[in-house]
């Protein structure tokens, strides 16, 4: 039976006309599915459904989503991210992972040539009477410019040079930072993507060793808004707060001290 599938030109180019036509005719396409964005059930026989192709270095995974959640598209991801997505589909990745991961090579390096570790906390922040999904980023030590022998922490300066702005009022929405995005796939956070210097495909500024589970409330807010707010502060500023009200208090204190930057970014792949 024909499916109500959307297959973008980019997806068709990757999978070929024959496979695309077979999908549209009902072959190899499930009637029911779990949306790769909101993780709620969908039915390609009853509602418009997007084909989303996650492409790694060696493999690719075709997923399905409500067309109202995301358009049909190709999402480039690392091979490790793709394996994590497959594990989440098959249920092999059932154990939540801590919100800490090594940055990609394009991320700033830590002092003394040791690799930095960036802590990522997901939470909801109240701005202008509405809850917004947020990522709070804090390194575990000072961040210096790649190749520098200085001990001076330049984490905020490096982010400002890449379009992030200082936060002076937590009650105001951060401005968008073009080219940056957050990759939420299979209902989990996979990476924060940054624009390529030469205008090519985005690269991972931060990526999880294993896809990071987020709360249902956070995922719902992110899917609804199509936007995530990212806040960043130097090591030791925010800490791992057990509650969102404490996280908000720490963010407000960082903003008052002038050591908080932020930007709004769209969801990539969701």
How would you explain this protein's 3D organization?
Helices cover about 20% and strands about 35% of the residues. It has 2 domains: about 70 residues, no CATH class; about 170 residues, no CATH class. The longest helix is centred in the C-terminal third of the chain and has 13 residues. The two termini are about 25 Å apart. About 10% of the residues have low confidence. It is α+β, with helices and mostly antiparallel strands and about 270 residues long. It contains 6 helices and 17 strands. The strands form 4 sheets. Strands 7, 9, 10, 12, 13, 14, 15, 16 and 17 form a 9-stranded mixed beta sheet that branches. Strands 1, 4, 5 and 6 form a 4-stranded mixed beta sheet that branches.
Class of secondary structure makeup: alpha+beta
Q: What fraction, in percent, of the residue positions are helical?
A: 10-25%
Question: What low-confidence regions span 5 or more consecutive residues with pLDDT below 50?
Answer: 89-114
Mean pLDDT: 79
Order of helices and strands: EHHEEEEEHEEEEEHEEEEHEHE
State the total count of DSSP E strands.
Answer: 17
Strand-residue proportion? 25-35%
Q: How far is the N terminus from the C terminus?
A: 27 Å
Q: Roughly how many Å is the radius of gyration?
A: 19 Å
The number of domains? 2
The outline comes out as: globular
Count of DSSP-assigned helices: 6
Major sheet, described briefly? 9 strands, mixed
């Amino acid at each position: 039976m024909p499916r109500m599938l959307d297959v973008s030109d980019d997806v068709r180019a990757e999978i070929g006309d024959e496979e695309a036509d077979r999908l549209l005719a009902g072959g190899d396409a499930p009637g029911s599915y779990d949306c790769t964005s909101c993780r709620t059930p969908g039915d390609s026989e009853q509602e418009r459904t997007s084909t989303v192709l996650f492409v790694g270095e060696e493999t690719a995974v075709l997923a399905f989503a409500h067309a109202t959640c995301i358009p049909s598209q190709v999402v480039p991801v690392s091979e490790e991210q793709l394996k994590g997505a497959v594990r989440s589909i098959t249920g092999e990745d059932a154990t939540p992972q801590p919100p800490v991961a090594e940055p990609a090579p394009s991320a700033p390096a830590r002092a003394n040539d040791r690799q930095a570790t960036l802590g990522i906390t997901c939470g909801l922040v109240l701005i202008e009477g509405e809850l917004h999904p947020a990522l709070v980023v804090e390194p575990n030590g000072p961040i210096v410019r790649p190749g520098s022998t200085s001990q001076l922490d330049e984490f905020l300066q490096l982010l400002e040079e890449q379009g992030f702005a200082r936060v002076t009022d937590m009650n105001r929405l951060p401005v968008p930072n073009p080219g940056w995005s957050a990759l939420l796939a299979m209902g989990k956070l996979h990476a924060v993507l940054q624009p390529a210097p030469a205008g090519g495909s985005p690269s991972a500024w931060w990526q999880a060793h294993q896809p990071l589970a987020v709360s249902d409330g956070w995922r719902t807010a992110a899917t609804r808004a199509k936007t995530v707010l990212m806040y960043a502060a130097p090591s030791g500023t925010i800490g791992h707060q057990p509650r969102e009200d404490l996280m908000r208090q720490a963010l407000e204190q960082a903003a008052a001290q002038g050591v908080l930057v932020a930007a709004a970014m769209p969801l990539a792949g969701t």
